[in-house]
Amino acid sequence: GVQTCALPIYKLPAKYYSVVNCMVVKELSVKETAKELSISEDNVRKRFERAKLLLKTIMKGCGGYEESRAV
To answer: Rounded distance, CA 6 to CA 69, Å?
Structure first.
């Protein structure tokens, strides 16, 4: 439903959610995110890319991804 699709970030697995939260919500850099999560910068980049792919899949399942790109 609409409620489920409103915040797809919460559907991400914890390791991806934490990276997205740091980089998008807290606006930290890759380096700062790596330090905060005690992982390598390479892992931050990989997890962020995988999170974006997962979010696209989640949004397609909600029927809102295609429309949101058109705007």
So the answer is: 16
